[in-house]
Design a protein that fits this description.
single chain; alpha/beta; 10 helices; 5 strands; 43% helix
Length: 205
């Protein structure tokens, strides 16, 4: 299972571990009355408030209030959170098993562009498995909204390498974004970009 010369794994969350459903999320917000939902929730070309939220530059209250303003009526927090979290599906159990196996041979880190609402949902619904919780799968968890920086900015990769004391030549990064992988490679990190829903366990066989 060991990749030659690699001691550290940095793994993305959404699209790599966690399956996503963009259409379900769009439909959930459409039901709340969000006009022009395709433009407002364009996950490929996110608006400034999404970036600000992922970088922790606004609170969850601020985020919800922006959504309320766009809808044009009072919607309670729980309904907004439920619609927002409908983007997240699940982490297949075979990937959770794989993370546990990988920890035997590597030092495993999570690096995710995410936000408080999504992360709380993931901790409660996606990672619990048998007796395991989110902290059991990783040596350390790096989250954009806690770090006030986000991929693909070079600084977030530099911070991870520095804080974890990693040699980039001994580090392998798995992420579903070509831009994120390209920037990591400029720092000497090896990368792999899985397709949506891919079982990438073949990388370690």
């Amino acid at each position: 299972m060991k990749r030659k010369g690699i001691k550290n794994l940095i793994i993305d969350l959404g699209g790599v571990l966690l399956d996503l459903d963009r259409q379900r999320c769009l439909e959930s917000f459409r039901k709340l009355g969000l006009a022009d939902v395709e433009h407002t929730l364009d996950f490929c070309h996110q608006q400034d408030f999404f970036h600000s939220y992922e970088k922790g530059l606004m609170t969850s209250t601020d985020f919800r209030n922006i959504i309320r303003d766009k809808i044009g009526k009072m919607i309670d927090d729980a309904r907004i959170d439920a619609a927002w979290n409908s983007f997240l599906v699940s982490i297949p159990t075979y990937k959770l098993e794989l993370l546990l196996e990988l920890r035997k041979d590597y030092v495993v880190y999570l690096l995710s562009n995410t936000n408080e609402i999504h992360w709380k949902w993931a901790c409660s619904h996606a990672f619990p498995y048998k007796t395991f919780r989110v902290e059991d799968y990783f040596e350390h968890i790096f989250l954009s909204y806690e770090m006030n920086m986000a991929k693909p900015d070079t600084e977030i990769f530099q911070k991870v390498l520095k804080d974890a004391g990693l040699d980039p030549k001994e580090t392998f990064f798995i992420d579903d974004s070509a831009d994120n992988c390209r920037v990591a490679e400029t720092l000497g990190i090896s990368t792999y970009m899985p397709k949506a829903g891919e079982d990438w366990s073949h990388l370690f066989k």
